[in-house]
Amino acid sequence: MTETAVYAAGGVVWRVVDGKLRVLLIHRTKYRDVTLPKGKVDPGEMLAETAVREIHEETGIRVSLGVPVGVSRYRLPSKRTKIVHYWAAEATDAAIRASAFVPNKEIAAIEWVSPKKALKRLSYPVDAEIMEHFHRLIDEGVLRTFPIVALRHAKAVAREEWQGKDAARPLATRGRRQAASIVGPLLAFGVRRIVSSPAVRCVKTVAPLSAAIGREIDTTKLISQDAWEDGKSDARAVIGERVRSRKPAVLCTHGPVLPDILSELALATGTLRGSYLGSASALEPAAFSVVHLSVENPGSGIVTIETHEPKV
Q1: Which end of the chain is more exposed for a tag (fewer CB within 10 A), N or C?
Q2: pLDDT band with cut points at 50, 70 and 90 for residue 3
Q3: How far apart are CA 219 and CA 265, in angstroms?
């Protein structure tokens, strides 16, 4: 991120009403325009959690993020560049019922319209471009997705500084901060299932997430580094189960195991393998790659992959 740019995030919020797709537009009070929900990144936030927070603040609707739908860039009056990342985000019936939106100083109204009508209503060409990206997801039949998140454990105490078994090696102070910092971004993608290597550094990485969602950590040696080094790991079995479940999940594992995780995701979904898998698996401590798969047909291939790194 460059110092001169202003970063923001938002979404194309959608729902199906009586079999018809509708997207959410916001009418802003001050600017008298029609746009998509978005807002600036707060200090310490990662973009995904900004998008979820801003959508909720502007519309009252709590969402989980789907696939990315583009990035808009434009010049502000201050001459700084504003860069806005957008995701598709389904609004469930329960989330809409729970919304307490009322017109306010910032948002005069919210409106559900067809995607075609949204293109005509939006005030800015950069928003229309995002909507056109969204249209492509509709045309390709991959709007409704679920994520499988491949997470590398947070920064651990160095091997040379640890006397015990490698599997018992704990997180370093920085690693504990990283583990706390990724809770919001992982929640932004709706993660509800946690699968982890039994190594202490992996379990402690997802412990804050486990506490936040009230779900136990499912540990398996099949994605542990010890098993990988002994030739006994089995990423295929773990990935197969997660793809069949079609539910949002995070898999916390080790650097050497990550290439197997991404490779098996490609194989399980009939996706052509390529260099992009290497990029998605070459993660820094506490970084993660979100692999989006079609709910209706996971075997149709990986829809997209995005990678996120903690700021601490």
Answers
A1: N
A2: low
A3: 19
228-231, Cβ contacts within 8 angstroms, sequence gap of 24 or more? 228/254, 228/256, 228/257, 228/260, 229/256
Of 287, 298, 223, 211, residue with least CA distance to 254: 223
> Would the pLDDT of 2 be above 70?
no
- β-pairing, 217-219 vs 193-196, is parallel
**3-class SS at 133?**
helix
Instruction: Say if residues 156 and 179 touch (Cβ distance below 8 Å).
Output: no
Residue 173 phi/psi, 5-degree rounding, is: -55, -45
Between strands 288-294 and 217-219, the pairing is unpaired
Residue 158: name the closest of 139, 172, 142 by CA.
Answer: 172
CA-CA distance, 48 to 248, in Å (whole number)?
15
**Token pair for residue 287?**
């970084």
Q: Considering only CA atoms, which of 120, 52, 113 is closest in space to residue 88?
A: 52
Other CB atoms within 10 A of residue 250 CB: 25
pLDDT exceeds 60 at position 90 = yes
Closest of 139, 151, 147 to residue 305, by C-alpha: 147
Task: Please say whether the beta carbons of 277 and 221 come within 8 A.
Answer: no
Phi, psi of 2 (to 5 degrees): -80, 150
Given pLDDT bands bounded at 50, 70 and 90, which one contains residue 274? confident
Say if strands 20-28 and 107-113 run parallel, antiparallel, or are unpaired. Answer: antiparallel
Beta bridge partners of 199: none
Task: Catalogue the E-assigned strands of 81-219.
Answer: 81-90, 107-113, 145-152, 193-196, 217-219
Residue 64, pLDDT > 50, answer yes
- Between CA 28 and CA 37, with CA 32 as vertex, the angle to 5 degrees is 25
List the beta bridge partners of residue 24. 112
